[in-house]
C-alpha cells in the first residue's frame, strides 16, 4: 500500500486547474517514455470539473490524444446518451473537443447495449476488455493505468463502491455489477478495489465542504469496507487532491502546508 500524499488547494476551481495541469504532464511524460498513455476517468462533480478545466487549458494541445486510452472507474447503468451517464458528461466536458481515437475510448456498456439490462454480464464484458488490453508486464488482468482518478462521495464511496455493499468486498473480479446503490441510479458498473490498485497512480479528488467528513474518515485509518476511499491506492503513488473546504476537518497531523 502506498501511503497517501495530500495536496490542498485554495478552492475547487484552482484544484481543478492544478489537477488538469498535473494530468497533462503525466500523459505527456507517459507518451514520451512508452509511446502511449492510459487514464481512468471518474464521474461526479470533481471529475467533471477537472475535465472542463483540461478542456480550457491551452496546454491540452501538448497531449497526443490519438495515443491515449480512456477507461472508466464506474458507470451509471442507464441507456446510451442518458445525461446522467458518466461518459455522456465526460464527452460534454472534454472528450468531444479533442481528437481521440474512438477505438481507445473504452466506455462501460449502457443498459440498452449488447447486454441489455443485465449489469453483471455487462460488467464481465468490461472485465474481458480490460484483460485483453493488459500487457504481460502489467502482471495482472487489467492494464497498469498511468493515472486512475476517483471522485470521493460524501459517504466515502469511490467509483461505485459504496460502504458495506458487496462490491467493495470483491477480491477476485476486476469489474462488478452494483445493485441497490444508495445514490441514484441504483444499478451501476464499477471497477473493484483490486482493479483500482493495479494503477500506477491513484488520484482521489475531493472538493467542497460536503467532502470534508469523508476525507477525514478515509484518511484517519478507517477500514475500506466502511470507507471505500480508504482502500483506494496505487502501486506507485496515492495522491489526494483537495480544496481547503474538503481538507477542513483533517486531523492536524495530516494537514499539509497549503499548496496554493
Ligand atoms: O455517482 C458518482 O459519484 C461519485 C462522486 O461524485 P460527486 O459528485 O460527489 O463528486 C463519482 O466519483 C462517481 O464516478 C459517480 O458515478
UniProtKB/TrEMBL annotation:
| Superkingdom of the source species | Bacteria
What's the catalysed reaction? 6-phospho-D-glucono-1,5-lactone + H2O = 6-phospho-D-gluconate + H(+)
Which pathway, metabolic or otherwise, does it act in? Answer: Carbohydrate degradation; pentose phosphate pathway; D-ribulose 5-phosphate from D-glucose 6-phosphate (oxidative stage): step 2/3
Per its UniProt record, what Pfam families does this chain match?
Glucosamine_iso
Q: Where is the Glucosamine/galactosamine-6-phosphate isomerase domain?
A: 11-240
Q: Which biological process, per GO, is one annotated for this protein?
A: carbohydrate metabolic process
Record's CDD domains? 6PGL (cd01400)
Q: What is its EC number?
A: 3.1.1.31
Q: What class of enzyme is it?
A: hydrolase
Keywords from the UniProt entry: Hydrolase
Question: Can you provide one Gene Ontology molecular function annotated for this UniProt record?
Answer: 6-phosphogluconolactonase activity
Function as written in the Swiss-Prot or TrEMBL entry: Hydrolysis of 6-phosphogluconolactone to 6-phosphogluconate.
Q: Which NCBIfam families match?
A: pgl (TIGR01198)
The family note in this entry says: Belongs to the glucosamine/galactosamine-6-phosphate isomerase family. 6-phosphogluconolactonase subfamily.
Q: What is this protein called?
A: 6-phosphogluconolactonase
- Organism listed in the record: Streptomyces violaceoruber
Amino acid at each position: 500500500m502506498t501511503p497517501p500524499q495530500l495536496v490542498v488547494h485554495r478552492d475547487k476551481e484552482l484544484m481543478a486547474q492544478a489537477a488538469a495541469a498535473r494530468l497533462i504532464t503525466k500523459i505527456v511524460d507517459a507518451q514520451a517514455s512508452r509511446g502511449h498513455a492510459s487514464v481512468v476517468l471518474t464521474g461526479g462533480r470533481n471529475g467533471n470539473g477537472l475535465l472542463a478545466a483540461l478542456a480550457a487549458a491551452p496546454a491540452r494541445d501538448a497531449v497526443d490524444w490519438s495515443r491515449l486510452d480512456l477507461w472508466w472507474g464506474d458507470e451509471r447503468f442507464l441507456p446510451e446518451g442518458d445525461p446522467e451517464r458518466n461518459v455522456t458528461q465526460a464527452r460534454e466536458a472534454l472528450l468531444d473537443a479533442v481528437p481521440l481515437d474512438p477505438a481507445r475510448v473504452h466506455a462501460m456498456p449502457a443498459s440498452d447495449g449488447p447486454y441489455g439490462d443485465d449489469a453483471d454480464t455487462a460488467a464481465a464484458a468490461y472485465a474481458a476488455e480490460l484483460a485483453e488490453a493488459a500487457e504481460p508486464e502489467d502482471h495482472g488482468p487489467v492494464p497498469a493505468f498511468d493515472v486512475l482518478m476517483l471522485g470521493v462521495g460524501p459517504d466515502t464511496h469511490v467509483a461505485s463502491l459504496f460502504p458495506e455493499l458487496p462490491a467493495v468486498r470483491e477480491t477476485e473480479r476486476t469489474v462488478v455489477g452494483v445493485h441497490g446503490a444508495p445514490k441514484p441510479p441504483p444499478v451501476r458498473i464499477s471497477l473493484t478495489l483490486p482493479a483500482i490498485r493495479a494503477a500506477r497512480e491513484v488520484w482521489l479528488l475531493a472538493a467542497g465542504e460536503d467532502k470534508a467528513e469523508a476525507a477525514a474518515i478515509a484518511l484517519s485509518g478507517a477500514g475500506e469496507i466502511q470507507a471505500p476511499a480508504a482502500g483506494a491506492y496505487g502501486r506507485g503513488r496515492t495522491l489526494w487532491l483537495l480544496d481547503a473546504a474538503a481538507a477542513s476537518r483533517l486531523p492536524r497531523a495530516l494537514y499539509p502546508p497549503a499548496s496554493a
